[in-house]
Design goal:
single chain; 5 helices; elongated
Amino acid sequence: MKLDSIHSKILIFLQKNARISNTEIAKQVGISSPAVSERIKKMEDMGVISGYYAKVDHNLLGYGLRALITVRAFMGRLKPFLHKIESYNEVVNCYRITGNENIVMEVVFENQQHLEKFIDELITYGETKTQIILSNVVTHNPIDKA
């Protein structure tokens, strides 16, 4: 599906606030509310929009420590790791990557001891490297550039 500028604008509004009303989007993009609904439905049907999510502030939930952890899996340990990783509630995002490491994860922890315990579990699957996240400098959605 080729997106036109109206589709792109609708996506930008939904990415900024998934709870925005179709009426408000219609006012902003200059088409009717039913037309917005139809375009959103079409994008959902095509898989362009695959879900709506709540942005969670992990700090307010007691997870004030964030980190990026890469894993270089030991021979034969990648598949077991991929099955196990889904059970860790600390993992916010997990990606298979190219290069020397196999996995990069964004993870959240209550404190340093929680991080240490998590790493102790990971090292049974491979070598780890951990970087503590200090702050989020930039967040862009590729569609914002349209």
